[in-house]
Design goal:
- The protein has ten helices and 32 strands.
- It is of the alpha/beta class.
- The protein folds into two domains: 396 residues, Leucine-rich repeat, LRR (right-handed beta-alpha superhelix); 134 residues, Jelly Rolls (Sandwich), CATH 2.60.120.
- The strands form five sheets. It has a 22-stranded mixed β-sheet.
- The chain is globular.
Length: 653
């Protein structure tokens, strides 16, 4: 409606309208020099890159132009007449090496020139006193950033993928209002400002600045910084002043292969929630030395970070700072133990760890939710891991020396131990298989791909785990035999059956067991009475032998039909040249769980579920009242069967 109102401003001459956003109109105006003083905004966004030739005078008459957006258009021509009233410029692929010499928009707020040919900003930028947002993302010719002290209002500076950029000048480190500084993928960046005093900065991104060997030593007045990413840069150490970043919540130092340790000041990061240190190969040596040496002082004043304390986070932090007895870590050769009272996730993947005991003295017992320990060299996890009361996810993939997984906390939802070829003991899993205990009340997924030794130790009873689940649950491990109690078995991955109304009311859930012979991606779909009730995808990767995929899912709430209810499940291969499921799954079985399984004694014949007892009489089978009820239900079922047949005939008719 708004566009129609603007079109009516000048139906026959788009150059007389205040806003232009139809590409045909804009190209006409800019090539035929039809622009007037009435044009205030131009938005030229083409579906594919096109070469558009502009008349040199195209912008000259648009003195009131405030918004200029150009995407996917290769523009050639003279830009000396851009309006000085522009507030917002978003010009992808800007073709000139610098800004026009006479371009002086004093009210400019946003300047975005992604994938431009800019080499330097010239001198005109100094007039941009009101500029808040600047981006030259993907501008591979940009070599330097000039003195930005003349841009006091700058809030975001995006220089991602400026691959020729060598240095960021000291003036950038003193911009009081800068909130976001993104220098990711500046592969040749070698120097940052010596001092960073960015009191408003919240996000600093330096990922893959692989020539950057030093990080600024002086970090001052940066309490607002929430996220710092230094992945895959060439630093060997972090400055001790990193402790001044007291508001930091995300610290990512992954892939810094030369990093040999963590500074003592890191323990001051009391608000840290996510610490990512993956692929820091030298770091493992540093952390392993902490075993039995970073012992917190024994004192009755030691603070326990409990869930109740977390409810008053700011109060707790102030207490931690003032309490001298709080064990931030005992000095060890100039190092200190990191103590993070609000840490939620810790990623130490591929850090060459042989022990993880350094975690024992950390203060995140009640907050830690995710642990990533894949590709390390430890033999077992410490027993105290069971004390991590909110731990939800543990990754142990390719820990090929790992022999034992200890008791995990009841909060656990996901465990992945792919290719842990030495793994022999997983006590909790054994208990669940043999005693039907609910050791994992919240577990959703356990992946033990290629854990052959463990599978042999668990034996044939492992499928019994499915008989004691409430939420959806998936388990993958080596194996090739489907237990006999999976009464409905097939080779084509397709199940179809009918459940009488009385039995449907007793249906609790479904257990699926499939023998997977090759790596592939499987899609499971299930319907009840034509309604899609389950749809999911499972990836089977790098299988070295036949594997069992065990899956349990509760019966969804779907209104029962009179007579029979129709249930269907299918397994299909996706993203495969040969999509036939028989190539990947040799056999699969399905089991239906009912509320009173032991007394119903259900069977499947001709795709129809039946039972020797009925749900309402299984509590007292010998009483006369029950016998009478059974006779009554037999009659009703016979009548229902006739009604079902009639119903089907009517539907077919």
């Amino acid at each position: 409606m708004g566009r129609e109102i603007v079109r009516k401003e000048s139906p026959s001459n788009p150059g007389e309208r205040s806003r232009l956003w139809y590409s045909e109109d804009i190209i006409d105006v800019l090539t035929e020099n039809l622009g007037t003083n009435k044009v205030e905004a131009i938005k030229l966004v083409l579906p594919e890159t096109e070469e558009v030739y502009l008349n040199a005078k195209a912008f000259k008459r648009m003195r009131r132009l405030r918004v200029l957006i150009i995407h996917n258009a290769y523009v050639s021509g003279d830009f000396d007449h851009l309006s000085n009233n522009l507030r917002w410029v978003d010009w992808e692929g800007y073709p000139l090496p610098s800004l026009p010499a006479n371009f002086h928009p004093k009210k400019l707020v946003g300047l975005f020139m992604p994938n431009s040919h800019i080499k330097d900003l010239g001198q005109g930028y100094k007039i941009f006193k009101n500029l808040k947002h600047m981006s030259f993302e993907g501008s591979g010719f940009l070599t330097e950033i000039p003195d930005f002290s003349v841009l006091p209002n700058l809030e975001s500076l995006i220089l991602t993928c400026c691959t020729s950029l060598l240095e960021v000048r000291d003036s950038v480190g003193l911009l009081d209002r800068l909130v976001t500084l993104n220098l990711e993928y500046c592969y040749n960046l070698r120097k940052l400002p010596t001092n960073l005093k960015l009191k408003s900065l919240q996000t600093l991104l330096l990922t893959r600045c692989r020539r950057l060997e030093t990080f600024p030593n002086n970090l001052e007045n940066m309490e607002s910084l929430k996220e710092l990413r230094l992945s895959k840069i060439a630093i060997k150490e972090l400055p001790s002043s990193i402790g001044n970043l007291v508001g930091l919540e995300v610290l990512c130092i992954s892939g810094c292969k030369k990093l040999k340790g963590l500074p003592s000041g890191i323990h001051k990061l009391l608000h840290l929630k996510h610490l990512l240190l993956r692929n820091c190969f030298e770091l493992g040596k540093f952390l392993d030395k902490t075993e039995d040496k970073w012992q917190a002082p024994e004192t009755s004043d030691r603070i326990n970070v409990s869930t109740s304390c977390m409810e008053s986070r700011e109060h707790l932090v102030s207490v931690l700072r003032e309490t001298k007895s709080f064990p931030f870590g005992t000095s060890l050769d100039g190092k200190s133990l990191p103590e993070f009272p609000f840490l939620q996730s810790l990623d130490l993947r591929n850090c060459n760890l042989t022990e993880v005991n350094f975690l024992m003295n950390m203060s995140c017992i009640s907050t830690l939710e995710e642990l990533e320990f894949s590709w390390n060299n430890f033999v077992k996890l410490p027993a105290w891991i069971s004390e991590l009361a909110n731990l939800r996810k543990v990754e142990l993939n390719f820990c090929r020396q790992l022999q034992e997984v200890p008791i995990l906390p009841p909060s656990i939802e996901s465990v992945s131990a792919i290719d842990c070829e030495s793994l022999e003991v997983f006590s909790q899993l054994s208990n669940m298989a043999n005693s039907h205990t609910k050791d994992f009340p919240h577990v959703k997924s356990i992946n033990l791909t290629n854990c052959q030794r463990l599978a042999e130790n668990l034996g044939d009873t492992v499928a019994n785990i499915l008989l004691n689940q409430d939420p959806t649950f998936s388990l993958t491990l080596p194996g090739c035999e489907i237990p006999e109690w999976f009464k409905y078995q097939t080779k084509n991955g397709f199940f179809y059956f009918q459940v009488p109304e009385l039995l449907y009311a007793e249906l609790v859930g479904f257990a699926l067991c499939a023998v997977v012979s090759e790596s592939f991606t499987c899609e499971l779909q299930g319907t009840i009475n034509g309604e899609l009730v389950i749809k999911g995808v499972e990836n089977f990767i790098s299988l070295k032998s036949d594997h069992l995929w065990l899956l349990y899912f509760p019966c969804p709430v779907v209104k029962a039909w009179e007579g029979c209810n129709y249930i269907e499940f299918s397994l299909e291969a996706i993203d495969a040249v040969d999509s036939s499921i028989e190539k990947f799954i040799t056999r699969c079985g399905l089991f239906l769980e009912f509320k009173h399984e032991e007394k119903l004694n259900w069977t499947l014949e001709n795709n129809i579920i039946s039972a020797t007892h009925y749900p309402e009489v299984i509590y007292d089978e010998d009483s006369e009242e029950s016998m009478g009820s059974a006779d009554k239900h037999t009659e009703e079922t016979d009548a229902g069967g006739e009604y079902e047949d009639d119903s089907e005939d009517q539907q077919r008719g």
